[in-house]
Amino acid sequence: MSLRAQKTAKKKEEIVKSAISIITEKGYHNTTMEDIAAKLLMTKGSVYYYFKDKHDLLYQSYKMLLESSINTVADIQRENISVEDKLSKVMTAHIEYLIAERSGFETGINPEQFFEGNKLKSILDLRSKYASEIDRLIIEGIDSNVFAPVDVKIVRNIILGAMNWVIRWYSPEGEMRGEEMASSITKYLLRILKQND
Amino acid sequence: MSLRAQKTAKKKEEIVKSAISIITEKGYHNTTMEDIAAKLLMTKGSVYYYFKDKHDLLYQSYKMLLESSINTVADIQRENISVEDKLSKVMTAHIEYLIAERSGFETGINPEQFFEGNKLKSILDLRSKYASEIDRLIIEGIDSNVFAPVDVKIVRNIILGAMNWVIRWYSPEGEMRGEEMASSITKYLLRILKQND
Amino acid sequence: MSLRAQKTAKKKEEIVKSAISIITEKGYHNTTMEDIAAKLLMTKGSVYYYFKDKHDLLYQSYKMLLESSINTVADIQRENISVEDKLSKVMTAHIEYLIAERSGFETGINPEQFFEGNKLKSILDLRSKYASEIDRLIIEGIDSNVFAPVDVKIVRNIILGAMNWVIRWYSPEGEMRGEEMASSITKYLLRILKQND
Amino acid sequence: MSLRAQKTAKKKEEIVKSAISIITEKGYHNTTMEDIAAKLLMTKGSVYYYFKDKHDLLYQSYKMLLESSINTVADIQRENISVEDKLSKVMTAHIEYLIAERSGFETGINPEQFFEGNKLKSILDLRSKYASEIDRLIIEGIDSNVFAPVDVKIVRNIILGAMNWVIRWYSPEGEMRGEEMASSITKYLLRILKQND
DNA sequence: TATGAATGAGGCTTCATTCAT
DNA sequence: CATGAATGAAGCCTCATTCAT
């Protein structure tokens, strides 16, 4: 990648990160392009230089979030630890990421409402990919008798729902630090899966 | 309540129910007053007769949903059954209600984003009330040694997140009926609380 | 048509007529919706109540112009006069209409540039219809030996070009009245067709 | 002219020619500076090196077209042929030029709409000059009894309108070649002027 | 000369809301 | 009570133009 292309990529990422946090805070429709630009000390026009339109910015932001999540899981999958530890790490990472990036996209933006056609498909595909990574861990755990047999789809969605909900109630000003809370949630969720012997 | 007042109340409820389902489907900002009116074969003007403005309609809809939930819990609280059964019933009812009414308000509408001042306070109070009903059941269960000791706030939020998430992934066209799924989710969530003796 | 529908139709026509004259004067792109509304002492919003968007207003204006031309020709076709008189009347009417309505659509708006898809097709169809009415008169004249044999398509386009050009150079402030000029142009154009015996 | 000046002049002409054809095709307002630059594999910035602004590019393009037309007429005026042949040649050249350069400026761009002040005056002067060259030929023809007496202004405008209209309907894919059509139109237009003895 | 990133004015469009009938 | 025409504030987006490198 040329220097220029790098610079452009960096700028795009900067905008995306900023957009994610404002949109999480105020909601997509209550966030104006002006808001997004202003937060970065840019003008609207500049944002449009990097993104076709507001919707495109949302799409690319969403995609980046999902891809980042998938990468995290893939990294963890490669580690040489037990299934339980892997799932544990995946969950903790997920929650900590939400908190750190202040991203409420998973709860605040319903892909079916915001996207259509190829864009929707692409988002749903990424979601599925992430979901199946979790499923894989669950199944592996069941197969190796570490986890009890469960309805994988339902349990996975319980896990996702519980994790994504965090952004709605966790406050950094509270008594618990993010990591503590992440590991606490993880611990409780694992109880659903653990053999009861 | 006079006949007229009754009629008005009925009409209001009709509008609210319709609004909830459209807003759940398309999102608040993608739903126009025209849409809401049209679905009921009314005109915009009529809706304004019953509700001060769009925001008021949202507020009253949200309130109605929460109050209905709270009533349900209260009813269950009064029943003469075990704590575990009570919590179980509350969760099942919550999920089935979401599915039946096709309401995605809990996930789709973040009160902090949509309301402010007294309205926000009133919504948050109702939420708290509902939350503390659940907390009460959890605590009661712990006190009576039916449930393991847990961080009540965290577990309660895990439960809420997992339940509310349902509207995002459950499809009535799928193989599982709503009640089945509700009881399945309930069963798994209870594992978090159950003593592991 | 109900009273209300009549009123709406009238208002639409009012807007269209006004739009035609402003667009002719300033050009489509130099005319703002504000301009069009202001000229009628309306607000932008009102115009949008009657027309989907600016382009739709252009389309309906263009269509109305063409339909009106076609009706005029049809009326003349039915009259009990000679072919030459018919063609003569058609040309005179065309020119006088341009001047009276101050419409420069034919020269100022190239359908291929402004429309596409079905709208383009619909405009081109109307144009064709008008063109073939003129062709019919030319052919009739040739068949009855009143006109000399000519390449119909070319002569028709000469006639159209010469007539439409009027809006570009005729000034009502000049020495010649519109009708005079219309009949003068008509007279000259007929020379192209007249037998030279 | 220095080598550098020559190079600059050449580049300017290149840009102008390219601009004329894009603007003819898409219209001035639908043509962006980006479009013009891209077609020449330049960047916007470069175009601005040669032309003050978009409007200046339009102006110079229009001027170049008119000057070229005037030069053509002047050349023909100097030829040692009959008045009729001169007018004939002028018209044929005019039409062939429009077709060859795909220039629809005469019909697509109304000077009154696009220019003002000195620029408008300068364009109108060139137009007048061109018009009076045609007038001169007509008058000469009348004086020498080759042409019938006519209202010169009207006939000249008929001729101009008929010629300029060509760009709107002539398609190079059609059955007739450009030269054929040019001479055909010329032939018909001359009938307006020819003595009918 | 050439580039491409940044700017900002201007125009289109939507839609909640009002109000006379 | 109901209607539908009218309003106008607010936000998206385009693109000519500038300018540092």
TrEMBL record, chains A, B, C, D:
<dbReference type="InterPro" id="IPR041490">
    <property type="entry name" value="KstR2_TetR_C"/>
</dbReference>
<dbReference type="GO" id="GO:0003677">
    <property type="term" value="F:DNA binding"/>
</dbReference>
<protein>
    <submittedName>
        <fullName>DNA-binding transcriptional regulator, AcrR family</fullName>
    </submittedName>
</protein>
<feature type="DNA-binding region" description="H-T-H motif">
    <location>
        <begin position="32"/>
        <end position="51"/>
    </location>
</feature>
<keyword id="KW-0678">Repressor</keyword>
<keyword id="KW-0238">DNA-binding</keyword>
<feature type="domain" description="HTH tetR-type">
    <location>
        <begin position="9"/>
        <end position="69"/>
    </location>
</feature>
<dbReference type="InterPro" id="IPR009057">
    <property type="entry name" value="Homeodomain-like_sf"/>
</dbReference>
<dbReference type="Pfam" id="PF17932">
    <property type="entry name" value="TetR_C_24"/>
</dbReference>
<dbReference type="Pfam" id="PF00440">
    <property type="entry name" value="TetR_N"/>
</dbReference>
<dbReference type="InterPro" id="IPR001647">
    <property type="entry name" value="HTH_TetR"/>
</dbReference>
<dbReference type="InterPro" id="IPR036271">
    <property type="entry name" value="Tet_transcr_reg_TetR-rel_C_sf"/>
</dbReference>
<dbReference type="InterPro" id="IPR050624">
    <property type="entry name" value="HTH-type_Tx_Regulator"/>
</dbReference>
